[in-house]
Design brief:
Blueprint lengths: L8 H10 L6 H11 L3 H14 L5 H10 L5 H12 L4 H15 L8 E2 L10 H8 L3 H4 L3 E2 L21
Helix pairs in contact: 1-3, 2-3, 2-4, 4-6, 5-6
Amino acid sequence: MLKLINKSKGKTYYKIQMEPLSISEKDVAQAFDQARFDPRLMEIITEFIRDFWWALSPLELNKTCKRAKHPFMIKAATSVILDKCTMSPQDREAFIDWTILATRGIKDPAPQLLYIAVAPVGSKIIQQELKEAIPSLLRHNLIAKDLPFNKGISGVLKSESNPP
């Protein structure tokens, strides 16, 4: 099992991107917890969910996310994937069903920034985040202006029938 907490950022990024089928549901929950402090990791783990969601048990992911420090991060990733990614009607339906199971019982947090300790409190950057917040995230009381995809390009939802 990958112990993301004990790996350097580079090794964590590499493992998720280059060995995606070795990533467990527990690894995903750990990555989401770390992503609160690391926007690049949020991009990587959101793209991982977009491309390999079908390889994860939604019930096991739900259980591990509920035990995580920031369980609502799965909702942030899945909501931007649903709103911003291109997908076939069949893949959309399957992903929605998967998302319902993966996020069942996870409450939205009190309103807060998606990323912690990235920008100084009260700065112009924070004010810009508030003004330009992504509606997909705002629905879950999370505030961020940048899509959690590499270069802001959401891409296409992958599935077993449409693999990455």
